[in-house]
Design a protein that fits this description.
The protein is of the alpha/beta class. The protein has 2 domains: about 200 residues, Rossmann fold; about 90 residues, Alpha-Beta Complex (UDP-galactose 4-epimerase, domain 1), CATH 3.90.25. The strands form 4 sheets. The chain has a 6-stranded parallel β-sheet with strand order 2-1-3-4-5-10, sandwiched between helices. Helix 1 crosses helix 7, helix 4 runs parallel beside helix 5 and helix 8 crosses helix 10. It starts with a strand and ends in a 7-residue tail after the last helix. It is an enzyme of class 1 (oxidoreductase). Keywords: Isomerase, NADP, Oxidoreductase. This is GDP-L-fucose synthase. Pathway: Nucleotide-sugar biosynthesis; GDP-L-fucose biosynthesis via de novo pathway; GDP-L-fucose from GDP-alpha-D-mannose: step 2/2.
C-alpha cells in the first residue's frame, strides 16, 4: 500500500489532486493532504512530527511561499529563506523516514532570464533568473540540486516537475499575492457586480501592462493528472516540464478576453502600460512529456477559464481573496 503525503495540500494544486484522486479512487494508495494547519514546514520538528504521524512512502511536495510579480519584487529575502527551509526540511525528513519517492513542484519562472526559447529541462541552471523573483527562483532551483545529491549519495528517486502558469478552482485571489488569472477574475467580478450609474457597455476593465506578454497556462486539474502519472510512472531524478503545447500560448490580453467572455462582460478592455509587464515570454518545451505521453489531451483554455470563473462565482464566500 502506497501512502502519499501531499504538502501544500490545501492550495490550488493540492485541491486539484484531491479531486482527481477522489474520482480515480485507487485501491492501492492512501492519500493525505496536509495544509499549513497540519505543520509549519519552516520548522524541522513540526515537519518531522507530520511525517512520523502520517508515515508516507511517497511525497508530492507542493508547499512553498508563493506570490505574484509585485509581491515577489518586494520580498526576495523572505521568499529565499522560507522556501530554503521548507524544501530542506521536507526532503531531509523524507529521506530519514525512508520515503521511496518525492515529487517536488518547481516553476517555469525559475529559468534564466536571458535564454533562448523554447526552454527545456536542461537549461534550469544556465544563468541568473529574472531579477524580480530571484529569491523564490534560487530556492526552487536548489530542489533540483538536492534531488541529484540524494540520488548520488543514497540512490533516492527524488524528482521534480516544472509546470507553466497554473490556474483553476481554489486559486489565491488576494490582490497583493495573486497571479495574473485569479487576479483578473477577482477584479472582473468586482467590476461586473458593482452598482455603477453607467451602463454595462461603458464599464472599463484595466489590463495591467501592455497585454502583449505571452504565457503558457496549465489547468490545475490537468496538472494534477500529470503529477499523479509522474508519481506512478516517471523514474528519473531529472526534472520534467508539465506544460501545455507551445501552440497553446496566449497573450495576457487574450487571457483578459477569455475572462471577459466567461463573465459575459460587455464593457471595454484597456491596457495600462504604466504597469510592469514582467518577462515578455517564457515558452517552455514539453517535448520530454510528449515523448512519454504523446496522446494526453489538455483541457481547452477557454473551457478551463469558464470552469474557473464558475467555481469562483459559486464559492465566492470561501475563496481566498
Amino acid at each position: 500500500m502506497k501512502k502519499v503525503l501531499v504538502t501544500g495540500g490545501t492550495g490550488l494544486v493540492g485541491k486539484a489532486l484531491e479531486a482527481v484522486i477522489k474520482e480515480q479512487s485507487p485501491a492501492d494508495e492512501q492519500w493525505y493532504f496536509a495544509g499549513s494547519k497540519d505543520a509549519d514546514l519552516t520548522n524541522l520538528a513540526a515537519t518531522q512530527a507530520l511525517f512520523a504521524r502520517e508515515q508516507p512512502t511517497h511525497v508530492i511536495h507542493l508547499a512553498a511561499m508563493v506570490g505574484g510579480l509585485f509581491h515577489n519584487m518586494n520580498n526576495n529575502l523572505d521568499f529565499l529563506r522560507n522556501n530554503l527551509l521548507i524544501n530542506d526540511n521536507v526532503l531531509q525528513t523524507a529521506h530519514e523516514q525512508g520515503c521511496v519517492k518525492v515529487v517536488s513542484c518547481l516553476s517555469t519562472c525559475i529559468f534564466p532570464d536571458k535564454t533562448s526559447y523554447p526552454i527545456d529541462e536542461t537549461m534550469v541552471h544556465n544563468g541568473p533568473p529574472h531579477p524580480s523573483n530571484y529569491g523564490y527562483s534560487y530556492a526552487k532551483r536548489l530542489i533540483d540540486v538536492q534531488n541529484h545529491a540524494y540520488h548520488d549519495k543514497y540512490g533516492r528517486l527524488y524528482t521534480s516537475v516544472i509546470p507553466c502558469n497554473i490556474f483553476g478552482p481554489h486559486d489565491n485571489y488576494k490582490p497583493e499575492v495573486s497571479h495574473v488569472i485569479p487576479g483578473m477574475i477577482n477584479r472582473m467580478h468586482q467590476l461586473v457586480t458593482e452598482k455603477l450609474e453607467v451602463p454595462e457597455s461603458e464599464k472599463v476593465f484595466t489590463v495591467f501592462g501592455s497585454g502583449k506578454p505571452l504565457r503558457q497556462f496549465v489547468y490545475s486539474l490537468d496538472l494534477a493528472e500529470l503529477m499523479i502519472w509522474v508519481l506512478r510512472n516517471y523514474e528519473s531524478v531529472e526534472p520534467i516540464i508539465l506544460s501545455a503545447d507551445e501552440a497553446q500560448e496566449v497573450t495576457i490580453f487574450e487571457v483578459a478576453q477569455a475572462i471577459a467572455k466567461a463573465f459575459n462582460f460587455k464593457g471595454k478592455l484597456v491596457c495600462d502600460t504604466s504597469k510592469a509587464d514582467g518577462q515578455y515570454k517564457k515558452t517552455a518545451s514539453n517535448a520530454k512529456l510528449r515523448s512519454l505521453l504523446p496522446d494526453y489531451a489538455f483541457t481547452d483554455f477557454e473551457t478551463a477559464i469558464e470552469t474557473s470563473v464558475k467555481w469562483y462565482k459559486e464559492n465566492y464566500d470561501q475563496a481566498r481573496k
